User: Which sequence fits this backbone?
């Protein structure tokens, strides 16, 4: 059994990774579990660059492999915003409700529809060496108002067309079958199936 540190302090995100990776036989640890208190600065221009930066930096703080993700929402009518700034869209310290409120307000004045996509970029590193990267996406649309109480972040306003519900209206099991994060993890595991040893 292999232990892997998931580089997040977001409890909702950590729960999703635990669910997605438990079947692999990996034991999932958070940054606090691994005794990591530093937080590297994210200066990348893309989700992939930020995931790579975090994986490499955190992997120098532990002997264990580190899985980092950078994910967010891109709304096409807003030129891809909030994008890599999804977590800080309404300012540092702002909560999910404030970010959603700002997003919906901006969309009221935008033209070009409400199509959007969630993106998740993953990077796995150990000892400051990049092992593998993967990316997943899920396309949908932004609703006029929040719907549902599950999930976190922008989930209440992201409509998943195939099921006709927002991410926040899906059960954890449903979301973990179709989400951008689930798709990124599946791509990562497929690449690891080639025989890369994590230790």
Assistant:
């Amino acid at each position: 059994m292999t232990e892997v540190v998931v580089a997040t302090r977001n409890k909702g995100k950590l729960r999703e990774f635990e669910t997605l990776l438990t079947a692999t036989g990996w034991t999932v640890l958070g940054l606090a579990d691994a005794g990591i208190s530093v937080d590297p600065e994210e200066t990348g221009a893309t989700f992939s660059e930020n995931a790579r930066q975090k994986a490499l930096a955190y992997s120098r703080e532990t002997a264990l492999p580190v899985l980092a993700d950078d994910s967010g929402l891109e709304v096409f009518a807003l030129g891809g915003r909030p994008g890599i700034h999804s977590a800080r869209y309404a300012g540092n310290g702002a909560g999910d409700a404030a970010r959603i409120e700002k997003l919906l307000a901006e969309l009221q004045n935008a033209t070009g529809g409400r199509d959007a996509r969630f993106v998740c970029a993953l990077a796995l590193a150990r000892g400051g060496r990049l092992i593998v990267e993967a990316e997943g996406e899920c396309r949908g649309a932004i609703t006029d108002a929040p719907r549902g109480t599950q999930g976190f972040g922008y989930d209440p306003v992201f409509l998943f067309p195939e099921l006709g519900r927002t991410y926040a209206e899906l059960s954890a099991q449903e979301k973990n079958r179709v989400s951008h994060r689930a798709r990124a993890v599946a791509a990562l595991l497929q690449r690891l199936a080639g025989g890369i040893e994590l230790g």
